[in-house]
Amino acid sequence: MGKEQRHLLLVNGNTTASLTARLDRCAADFLGGDWAVSSETARFGAGYITQRAEATIAAHAVLATIGAAAQKTTFDACLIACFGEPGIAAAREIFAFPVIGMAEASVLCAIQVARRFAIVTVGEHWPAMLEDYLKANALHDRCCGIIPIAGQALDLANNRQLALEHIASAIRRAMECGADAVIIGGAAVAGLANELREAFTIPLIDSLDASLAQVEALARMRVHNVACNPQPQNVLATTTEGL
């Protein structure tokens, strides 16, 4: 008998559907035939999250999207495919299946292979946002730099060669800061680390790949969210009306 196919819900917290389609392809390639992937795009919010206000709005959109999907399908895991992980803590309170975030998964990977890591990601506001995130999770001391990648996120998502050039430049800056490993973070640049690995001597961690590896691990371990309290779904249901 073959293995039972597992089901992943991938939620893009940005509203750009073409980006969701790209993330869906990357996830299907990474996970292979053992997984079915259902990918959803946030129904309201920013085309690409670049600041705190947009991340706050996206948290509502992500929760509503997960809630609507979970009413129709049983999932083994959910991936919030957005480096800011909007709504992740609330999602873990509501849903029993593992909810994985790109930043958390990639940082956990980085500290397993390196003493000091750096993050390169798109957007001028992200360094301060990620610094707050790392401090809140007691991981800031292991990070030696957060380097913004030049350019606009959706432009880079649509121009692979330009993205590779700007990412490579940011990686070199990260290495100058003393990084033993570099996280390439964000939905817009997902899947590009593999094309740059031969050019650098230190580990490059793709935030999407790291989170998909966590999806596989947690589903295989059959763990669930111990903080899950499904009662908020009654409140969540009212927020999805008309979406």
TrEMBL record:
InterPro entries the UniProt entry points to: Asp/Glu/hydantoin_racemase, Asp/Glu_race, Hydantoin_racemase-like, Iso_Racemase_Enz_sf
Superkingdom of this protein's organism: Bacteria
Pfam families xref list: Asp_Glu_race
Stored PANTHER family: PROTEIN DCG1
Family: Belongs to the HyuE racemase family.
Record protein name field: Hydrogenase expression protein HupH
Annotated organism of origin: Microvirga terricola
Lineage: Bacteria, Pseudomonadati, Pseudomonadota, Alphaproteobacteria, Hyphomicrobiales
